[in-house]
Amino acid sequence: MDVLKDLTKKHSGVPQDIKKQLKVYHSLFNLSYGDGKETVYSFTNKKRNQEKRFGRLYATSTSLQGMKKDFRSALAAGVLQDIDMVAAAPSIFKTILSVYNLNSKALDLYLENRDEALSKYKLKEKSDFLRVIFSEHPPRGLHPELMEMHKTLYNVAYPQIAADYPVIVQFSKERSVSVVNKGSVMANVFQAVESIILMEAIEFFRERDIAPSVLCFDGVMLVKSERVNEQLLEELHQHTVQQTGFDVKWAEKPIVHNQTKLQEKDFPDHCDDPKAFVAEVLKREPSYDQEWAFKVEHHIGRLNDKDDQESYKEVLKCYMGEFCRKDLYVGKYYFRTSIHDPWLLNVPGETVGMTIHHLLGWYMPQVKTRIFDFHKPTWGEQSGKCFIEHFNAFPGFAATNLGCHVERDEVAPYLDYILQVICSNHETEYTYVLKWMQELFTSSKANGVVLCITGLEGTGKGFFYQTLSEHLLGKELCLTLNNADQFLAQTFNSELKNKSLVLFDEMPAVGFKQHRSMFDKLKNMTTDDKILINKKSMRRYVAKNMNNFMINSNNEAILPLTATGHRVFCLKVSNIHHCDEDYFEQLAEFVKANANKIFTYIMNLDLKGIRLSKFPQNEDCDAMAAACIDPVAALIKEFVDYGGFPRNLMEPGRAVEVEKVMDSRDIYTMYQNRGHDQAG
Fold first, then answer.
1. Crossing angle for the helix pair 126-134 and 144-151, nearest 10 degrees?
2. Which helix (DSSP H) or strand (DSSP E) does residue 418 occupy?
3. Domain that holds residue 593
């Protein structure tokens, strides 16, 4: 009480807002201090207001137990002694296992030498070891001895514990709206034993006229006494074993008081840049931290200036909004759906309540529409208290536009690869490919032209897509499909959503009719403004089509093209670097190191005069059209080439010309040969 009184004095050096809080504690302590005013403990926690007769004990009035550690240390330093159980959970569970004639090498080693155990099992802290004990489903990749310990606890001991203590099991499994998680069975068993041991420790000290002051979870604070030494703590150890049967040792834990840390505030009075502040917080801890959010909310309540309050309200909106964004991914966080519900989440209120406290729900933004656009900010303008005009799900490119001029020489190795390998040294095709790439970086919509690259295996055609997906666009915007025929034949297509570049890696060798059907569907996917997303177990919905397609193949006859087609641009790669591993390894390192410059150079090119729909009709396109021609069209073409098909047949006023007359046997032989070639 004297220490608390000194801290609240005018010149104590404690900040005014903390001093006010300490004065409240001082007043409350006066009500529960002195004769007949001893602190009372109960199994019921204020936050979990259920009746139970086991588990951890909580103070029913103001107590050091409920204070922040810094406050508790400041008040207790030099006045109290903190006596804690040594390795409480491992010691208790070792004894529990022994009751059922079980043991664990990992528990034994941890109790003998904690540092050696952590090193052997590749664990950073003791909390990692405790997590294995209390987690019903252990993390992957555990050391075999840790797996053995977990199996012993949960596969062997747990069924026997559940049979012996059904009340604890029942309590642990019951849930309510106010309390989602009451703790696991193992946690409640541990806390029940812990409380029994603590009560015996209190009786031990009372019998020796040493006044216990407060329980602190796995320990007890005593009024400072010279008689509390190692010898007395060993007597307490023996007393614990005799009275409870649990082999738990005790040790004094130093109470470290850091005056500087006590004077520090969690947050300054005003936040100048809420977005930057939240970004820094998420960089340190990317997972949702409700305790941190409550600290900010509590800080807002302590601020008097309205502008200061608004700055931290904006902090909470930014923070909660970040986890609203994560709602787009399955299995993450479930918050409020948008007012027009384009996300199709249909999340019930109870689910939201299990994840986020209702008080923080006031700061959760409600988004009117969801978009995917390269050029708009993540969040649209805010209208009203918590309504955001749009949320942009675009994740950003892998490369960054440097916003400066980049010379061609700085990125020449990659551009030369496109020119010499992909475009076989054809300048017109090279310029067109750069325009096609530029559209990928600037237009968040389908460009209407499939880029088809053919050539021998090992020539480097796959390297082009690899650089786009890994270093320029980014993997989140790209999709590889290895089973084109199956994908185009099915109705489910959710993989295409929000993908800027889709690669069909090798088109299958199927019949002409199937090729035609696949090509018809692909043409629509290439040019339509909207796409109907159809996902299993969800109703269908319309989304913006931003899919641009590439095809890589070793085979020329991959699509039923025509000589006048304008939706597929074909390139046959050069063999100049065929199987040249050194060349592609060096080029890969160059692209990785200079991705930002390559991205910037292509973005800055003046290619306004090139229209994607007017691509060069090169020899590669003609060769593929010839390779893909159907039998009837090929036969008619041979008639014309052979000279046996009458010319000027439909031209009035002109004589019909036939350079060479074919009889029916010639035509039949030609048809047979053509059919044989197609079958082969």
1. 40
2. none
3. 408-613
